[in-house]
Amino acid sequence: MRVDKILFLPSLAKGLVTVKTLVRSLYPPQMLYGDKMKDSCKIEFCVKEKTTGQVVGKKVIEGEVKRDNRTYFETSISLDNPKAWTPDSPFLYEGEVSVYDQDELVDRYSVNFGMRDFSRKGKFFTLNGDKFYLRGSNITLQRFFEDPDCQALAWDREWVKKLMIDLPKSIDWNAMRICVGIVPDFWYDLCDEYGIVLQNEWLYWQNHGWDEQVRKEYTNWVWSDGNHPSIVIWDAINENWDSYIGNTLIPELKELDPTRIWDAGYMTSDQMGTNDEMDEPHPYRALTLMHSSELNDYFKNNPYNLGALHENWVGFSSILDAGVPQLVNEYGWIWLWRDGRPSKLTLNNYNYYLGENATPAQCRELQAYWLQLETEWLRSERSVGGILAFCHLTNNYGFTGDWFINDIKDLQPSPAFRWFKHCFAPTAVFIDLTDHRYTKHLPALKPGSDLVFNLVGVNDLNKDSSGKVLLKLLDEKGTIISTQEESIVIEPFGKRLQPCLLKLPSKAGGYLLIAEYHEKGGAKPVLSRRYLKVGDAVTSFKDYFEYTLN
């Protein structure tokens, strides 16, 4: 007899863990009438704290195992004072299963797991009973395998830790989507150990298989990866629809693992009814640039107010009207290769905004600014349950791109990644103004006039955030020509609009408005920025001061 599969499924609220296991009998099947068909066995379950080895729960059950077959067993174990698993405190337990045949130990197997409850309430995700906003990006490892510089990096533990843990946590990300294909087990182990939550997506995009084969692979997937506390969402499909998966298979797999939420790609409650637990909208605002040959005419009729946080984009209505959590796990459409050249899908973007001879530095500046403003726009809509930018890792020289420059083995962040530190900060204050540097449809602001706008404060935490906002206006040389101060208080999980009035300079030119949020007790200010065109002196995006982060 052997332990074939095992799941430790937690309930922090109830203080217990449900253990499901399949025991494989290697005894020969019944060959003659009257031969044995089953054998008695004893199964011992033990739960220990991972770091101390202290036993916090035990259970022994007995049963019969069918010969040359797998037999299912299920039991529950109460734990003494269970400690919660969270991204800030990723406490791990070790679950051990021992199988005895006629009182002889014949197999023992152990896995790590964590006590955490991930669920949904209305349009929001919850972790251990509290509202929980997901902030992060995507990993497309199967595409990275096509990268000429991939080599053995995916099996280098230190490289993977920097990619998956150190860099994300340095900019306050708490989540990642494993996109169009799973990753090696030790990647999940690192996220378990250091505290990153995962949306775990099967390799299903444009491929369609036989229903029974899909059922076999998905069921084995849940058994295989289901002990990782970091995995909180099973993602069955990417950007597609499959009625069998959404309406037949997912409800079946929810019986096997009721502790996680399922995502079914572009399927919503319209196709799934009450089986729909969440949606994954992809608001790519610049998608049209891939197709349009008459970009100037298109944007003349369909201007994109990049940076206008209050704008209710027509494609946003389904997100606002939905009754389940909305996880925006792709957006941007502004990819670059690591040498600073536009990707295959975004060449038109850069040609339209920068011209055909833009330098890598100019492309990276636009990308960083664009992603900062789009992230601010999404985070300002507080009904969105999570935001995952696309993409943290992919193949170079492909259709998309990631946030790194130069040699991927060094994981050198691009300017876009460094600005994510500000727009993804759990508590932040953003400027609600349309960009004047790159957009072409806005008239210039009148010199010496009053500019009225809102600051938008957002708070992902379950406590008040308060502090001061310093508004600084910089000229084309980077000189600060005016400063004013605003006070702000943002309620837990809330949003605060702070009206502001700024006296514009009398001299025409290209200016940069910066909002520095100095939170009480915060180490460094969180920045938001908007470029302003005052008067008609500015003729190009090149006429503005380049603000770089230290």
From TrEMBL:
One family name in Pfam for this protein: Glyco_hydro_2_C
Domain named Glycoside hydrolase family 2 catalytic: residues: 122-261
MF terms in GO: hydrolase activity, hydrolyzing O-glycosyl compounds
InterPro entries: Beta-gal/glucu_dom_sf (IPR036156), GH (IPR017853), GH2_Domain-Containing (IPR051913), Glyco_hydro_2_cat (IPR006103), Ig-like_fold (IPR013783), Ig-like_GH2 (IPR006102)
GO biological process: carbohydrate metabolic process
Similarity-based family: Belongs to the glycosyl hydrolase 2 family.
Stated name of the protein: Glycoside hydrolase family 2
Organism for this UniProt entry: Parabacteroides distasonis CL09T03C24
Classification lineage: Bacteria, Pseudomonadati, Bacteroidota, Bacteroidia, Bacteroidales
